[in-house]
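Retry 2 of 3 after timeout on previous attempt. Resubmitting structure tokens to design endpoint.
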């Protein structure tokens, strides 16, 4: 009996020791701060969010505690009422410590007890702050009329080398630390010297910078999700270094997601982030729905294991939406829908013989159509002899078709090809959610533009007419 009691005691002690290692307990002591509340915020998705609110204790300190482990990252401790703040780190195995500072000099008086992660971070940030003041002083000195520009530039260069050397020594000394990860996230590969013309050198520099952009950034480090640099650095890459065409964008975001797949949290973050980003841009930029469809089908519909966090209902909505968009992406052959003419004869879309076909979905009662149609009429009056045909598709069922023909006369659209969509198949297959909706097709009925306004038709057709002319000259 004694033996089993001893064994039970040891098991309980072991379980209690494990529990003691979980959770977080951080005490804040801020001299001169007399407010009742203190806030903890964190960086995420390029923004800042409140994590918790702490109430003042009897001794004037603030306690942040809980049974769960805080996610690693850069946190902001925000003072009321002016929202002044200082930053601190939270790491996986660094969850119990004390923070001291003064309200009048938050960064300058900042110190930590029991936090190795913050000791490293404080050493680095204090060094940067010191060197930043030196650099600022040198920059001010350069403005003087009698300043020795070459000497000051040499000092600035030496200062830059000193900062880089300190960064490298910190990374080497604390390789797994969050501070090292943060430093590496800010580094760029050393640009080599290139030869050639100025344009050639610029192109080589761009390509090198792009190829080595992620050399030091660990996209699989979930701690960096809660930092000010990861999100902004990746989005800057996508916005400034990647060509704004769907094929280039999808190739690059796949590469980023694969690099982030080391942990589920980072992989989930970028899959979700990119889906939301390009869902929004689908409505803002022509052709960006192809990126949304790629993400939805690759990660949500065809590889469910990589998106197991999403519930079935949401997945079904995403896949349904992507499935509706996929057949009408730019470059795809338009659905060969059958429409009805005024004489009740049927016309299939692909039977329209034209170098370019402008498909114009509209409705007689649509207020936007009444503003758009006159511009479309004016456009077509100038392009009817250039191999362009307008197919006006009135979104009314068979019993309401007379409204369409009356509006055609009223809006002076008589030189278009006009049809109705009695069973609304065109509306469904072309995913027409609102009117007017414009698609531009080439001779083979491939979609070359869509989702544009009537006032953009001239620009789009001019571009493609010129391209066609150049191809004909080259004998293509």
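Retry 2 succeeded. Sequence:
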């Amino acid at each position: 009996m004694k033996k089993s009691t001893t064994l039970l005691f040891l098991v309980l002690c072991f379980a209690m020791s494990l529990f003691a290692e979980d959770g977080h307990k951080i005490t804040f002591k801020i001299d001169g701060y007399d407010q009742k509340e203190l806030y903890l915020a964190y960086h995420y998705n390029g923004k800042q969010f409140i994590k918790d609110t702490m109430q003042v204790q009897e001794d004037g300190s603030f306690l942040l505690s809980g049974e769960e482990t805080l996610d690693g990252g850069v946190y902001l401790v925000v003072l009321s009422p002016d929202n002044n703040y200082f930053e601190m780190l939270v790491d996986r195995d660094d969850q119990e410590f004390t923070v001291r500072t003064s309200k009048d000099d938050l960064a300058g008086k900042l110190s930590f007890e029991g936090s190795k992660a913050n000791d490293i971070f404080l050493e680095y940030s204090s060094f940067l702050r010191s060197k930043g003041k030196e650099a600022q002083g040198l920059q001010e000195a350069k403005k003087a009329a009698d300043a020795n520009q070459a000497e000051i530039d040499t000092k600035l260069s030496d200062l830059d080398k000193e900062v880089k050397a300190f960064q490298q020594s910190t990374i080497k000394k604390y390789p797994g630390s969050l501070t090292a990860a943060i430093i590496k996230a800010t580094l760029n590969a050393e640009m080599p010297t290139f030869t050639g013309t100025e344009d050639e050198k610029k192109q080589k520099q761009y390509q090198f910078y792009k190829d080595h952009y992620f050399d030091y950034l660990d996209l699989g480090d979930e701690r960096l999700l809660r930092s000010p640099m990861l999100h902004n650095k990746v989005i800057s890459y996508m916005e400034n270094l990647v060509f704004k065409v769907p094929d280039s964008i999808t190739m690059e975001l796949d590469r980023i997601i694969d690099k982030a797949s080391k942990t589920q949290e980072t992989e989930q973050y970028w899959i979700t982030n990119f889906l939301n980003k390009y869902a929004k841009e689908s409505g803002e930029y022509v052709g960006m729905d192809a990126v949304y469809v790629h993400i939805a089908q690759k990660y949500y519909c065809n590889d469910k294991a990589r998106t197991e966090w999403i519930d079935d209902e949401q997945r079904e909505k995403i896949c349904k939406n992507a499935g509706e968009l996929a057949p009408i992406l730019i470059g795809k052959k338009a659905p060969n829908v059958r429409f009805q003419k005024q004489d009740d004869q049927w016309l299939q879309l692909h039977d329209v013989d034209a170098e370019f076909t402008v498909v114009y979905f509209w409705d007689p009662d649509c207020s936007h159509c009444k503003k758009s149609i006159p511009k479309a009429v004016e456009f077509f009056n100038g392009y009817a002899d250039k191999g362009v045909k307008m197919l006006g598709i009135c979104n009314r069922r068979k019993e309401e078709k007379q409204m369409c023909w009356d509006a055609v006369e009223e809006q002076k659209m008589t030189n278009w090809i006009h049809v109705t969509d009695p069973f609304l198949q065109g509306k469904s297959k072309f995913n027409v959610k609102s009117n007017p909706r414009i698609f531009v097709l080439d001779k083979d009925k491939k979609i070359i533009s869509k989702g544009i306004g009537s006032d953009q038709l001239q620009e789009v057709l001019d571009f493609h007419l010129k391209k066609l002319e150049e191809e004909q000259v080259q004998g293509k």
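Attempt log closed. The two ends are 94 Å apart (CA to CA).
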